[in-house]
Design a protein that fits this description.
Layout lengths: L8 E3 L3 H9 L5 E3 L9 E6 L6 H8 L3 E9 L7 H4 L8 E6 L20 E5 L6 H13 L3 E4 L2 H21 L3
């Protein structure tokens, strides 16, 4: 929608999702398996449960260049440093957009999901300053308000204002 890229590729294990996104002109191409990608990517966005990050990291190592930027959209940050391969250290910037809904799947996607929302960026000491600047510019183009936090501070804040209330609601559901 914002014409941020010449081409947009997606990976989803559900081929039907890839077909829907291509038919709606949201992506240029996609695959349901990492091995089908022969491209090198400038930006990789990981939008998957944190439990799959290790597998994703190992699969994307060959899809990047020295200048590629890798971000995630998950709600946990501190654990990433323990599982991030050395090869990806300078390319990766942890992120957490404070946006979304309880609905999932392509059919529930919203083009203005991030507009006027907070977008937390959690660089660390290995983050490339040029990559951080590019990411901040991208976040601004998306209409977000960026905020820089350390991964530890992010996890402390969102454990209290998001994860704890959600946990309590699950416990008291019955």
């Amino acid at each position: 929608q914002n014409k941020l890229s010449e081409k947009i590729f997606a990976l989803d294990f559900d081929s039907e999702t890839i077909d829907l996104a291509k038919n709606d002109n949201v992506i240029d191409d996609g695959a349901n398996n990492f091995s089908l990608f022969e491209e090198k990517f400038d930006l990789i966005i990981i939008a998957t449960p944190p439990s799959s990050y290790e597998e994703v990291f190992s699969e994307i190592e060959n899809l990047i260049t020295a200048n590629s930027i890798i971000i995630d959209l998950g709600s946990l940050k501190s654990f990433i440093a323990d599982i991030l391969p050395d090869k990806l250290q300078s390319n990766f910037i942890a992120c957490h957009p404070i946006a979304g809904s309880e609905k999932s799947g392509f059919e529930n996607s919203q083009p203005d999901l991030f507009t006027n929302k907070k977008f937390i960026i959690c660089p660390d000491k290995k983050t490339n300053p040029d990559s951080l600047k590019k990411l901040e510019d991208l976040v601004k183009i998306l209409g977000c308000n960026s905020e820089i936090l350390t991964p530890k501070k992010h996890d402390e804040i969102y454990a209290l204002v998001s994860h704890l209330p959600q946990f309590i609601s699950f416990l008291t559901k019955e």
